[in-house]
Amino acid sequence: MTDWPILHEYAASGNCYKIRLTAAFLDLPIERREYDIMKGETRTADFLAHVNANGRIPVLQVGERFLPESNAACFWLAEGTHLVPHDRFDRADMLRWMFFEQYNHEPNIATLRFWMGWVGERNLTDLQRAQIPAKQEAGRAALALMDEHLAKQDWLAGHALSLADVALYAYTHVAEDSGLFVLSETPAVERWIARIEAEPGFAAMSA
Amino acid sequence: MTDWPILHEYAASGNCYKIRLTAAFLDLPIERREYDIMKGETRTADFLAHVNANGRIPVLQVGERFLPESNAACFWLAEGTHLVPHDRFDRADMLRWMFFEQYNHEPNIATLRFWMGWVGERNLTDLQRAQIPAKQEAGRAALALMDEHLAKQDWLAGHALSLADVALYAYTHVAEDSGLFVLSETPAVERWIARIEAEPGFAAMSA
Known about the structure:
7 helices
């Protein structure tokens, strides 16, 4: 037993990586517990009853309490640190980008990465295959919006690295995995990726 | 000119209503500015340049700054009030339900309400029509997860009404508008709806 938070995760998931990256930037220890989502290990009766009734990872366990939703787990780890802006508006603006991530970015860019790279295009259902063009277009629009914003300022919210950058970095830097996005089309996003990777404490997804 | 925050909105949108309901519970004045999304009034060059490059409402304007994303706007209004739990874990858990709302609830329950009640089933694209069964199933799963949770506790996060309840109330209480959800199947959700409507300061969506 340890007093460290336990991350219930699948390491290749960008949503899980966000939490590890937050912990790395803050130099906080976390214990990692791996589940193979491709084998249904987060849909077992035990997982649903004790870790997350929603059957999804990541979940951050703090003592006997369980916190699903990657961005909420990042917030729990980082509240009161330099990864959360001090200014009230900037703090809400950080959350604005994190909600954008879950609504406009993840369902397109992360889902296409999973479909093309994990499930495999030939194994998709007809309905999934029919959604690819719309998800590609919506994912491009999300990257273009980030690019327009990052052409004007170094960080998504406030004047320094925040959870907004961590949350959006996770699936942006591997967006090309699906074969459906080209990051050189969004040069301000590419420069922002390099800025994040140069920050003290940065840890790669594979670490 | 006023010093009150300005809500750029479409009144029938649950995402906009969340912000009005937060302000009502906190007895905060806001100025309302209406756009007809059915006439494309949030896609004009002026709106995209000055209010939200993402072309979406709601946006909360605070002085000369603009805050998109409904749940971020609620957070800006409510931080430090009784609508945000004092306990650190409960506060992150509140955000957990707000991210769940944007990822698991809104894209299914709100989207079907919009498609069936505003666009009209006959005007949907083939791809939209093909997505109805999956969105209905995912929306039911979201309501079932809330029901299981609310059978054990009165409020979604912590021990009192919070932004988590406000955010999820907005589209839950009108879920039946699409004709695809039946709230009596989730009795704990029904009791929770009644609890919210009995709280001091509550304001109806049509108010």
